[in-house]
Amino acid sequence: MTRSFIAILTALLCGCASTVKNYGPDEHFSDSEALSGAGSTADQCARTSDAVWVTGATFQECIRYFPSKDLRTGPVRSAIVFMAGDVLSAKGISPTYQAGTPRKRIERADQEQRRGGTPYLILGRPGTDGSSGNQNLRRTQYETLVVNAALDKIKEKYGIEEYGLIGQSGGGGLVAALIAERKDVLCAVSSSGVTAVKYRITAAGRSSDYTGKSTADIWDPIEQLGRVHPKADFRMFVTSDKDDSDVSFSSQEHYVQAAQQIGLPITQLIVRATGPVHHQTYSIGNRVVEDCMLGLSTNYISSTYSGMANDNPNMDDLARKARAQRMPR
């Protein structure tokens, strides 16, 4: 780790960050928390709705999540976890971030469960959505360890036996990092994910990541592939647009090829993203991870979603069709 990275970690651990807010259902998330980070305590976390307190050698955080109906009413065997893209970028904070509220996150989780049938939760990445921590430490080992610990706590709380993981952009990179830490992931989907960070840096002619981190501080998912020892029947999918000018198609393909070379069951789906830089593919990713959790074949998933637009208006119909073909396990 570089000296600057250690300094940031030290600041977080000594409580120098402000205290994260315990957001009510309709309170909007704070830009300042996402920009500067925020801390928490075990007592505060215990008083926060749908949150888990996690600790490790380099962190102590309160991670908030937004569960669908089945998770709110009792134990579940399987659950899908969604991780959003980076709130911060070289241009500053996402202009849509502050519009978010806990109620909106829960409504979206409920929508996804109604569509696909599998309990679904949205996980607040460190420093966002009411989770303590620091978004400036994304793409470092810190974020992977914090989120991995949160998944352990959530698993214990609800009796979860297997996860489906789905993430967009930076969240997709986090999915790729997490599969090296866990053996309970049945399905993983990286939607336009930052999965080959150093490749992306080099291809852009940069000397550091877009987060400002040096390559020495980056926890690169592609470099963790040798540590992936998945559970039986594990499958991974990557949804990509060839015209993506945010996270290049070539960087996503580079990860896929590296995973295939060591025998991981990974499939890249070429789709049509939404947004001006052809980057948003998570709506398709949500259907893919659900169909995978339902046990539908890779051939079915590939033929159904390849070439599809991320704003396809028939997502509900596609979900109903998939549920009708659910494979018993």
Q: Can you walk through the features of this model?
A:
Keywords: Signal. Residues 96-136 are annotated as: Disordered. Residues 1-22 form the signal peptide. This is AB hydrolase-1 domain-containing protein. The protein is of the alpha/beta class and 329 residues long. It has a single domain (3-324), classed as 3-Layer(aba) Sandwich (Rossmann fold). 36% of the residues lie in helices and 18% in strands. It is built from twelve helices and twelve strands. It has helices at 3-13, 31-36, 42-46, 69-73, 102-116, 141-158, 170-178, 197-203, 249-261, 282-293, 298-305, 315-324, and strands spanning 18-19, 38-39, 51-56, 59-67, 78-83, 88-89, 92-93, 120-123, 162-168, 185-191, 235-240, 266-270. The strands form three sheets. The protein has an eight-stranded mixed β-sheet with strand order 3-4-8-5-9-10-11-12, with helices on both faces. Strand 11, helix 9 and strand 12 form a beta-alpha-beta unit. It is globular and about 50 Å long.
Keywords:
36% helix; 329 residues; 18% strand; eight-stranded mixed sheet; Rossmann fold; two-stranded parallel ribbon; 12 strands
Short description:
With 329 residues, this protein is an alpha/beta fold. The protein contains 12 helices and 12 strands.
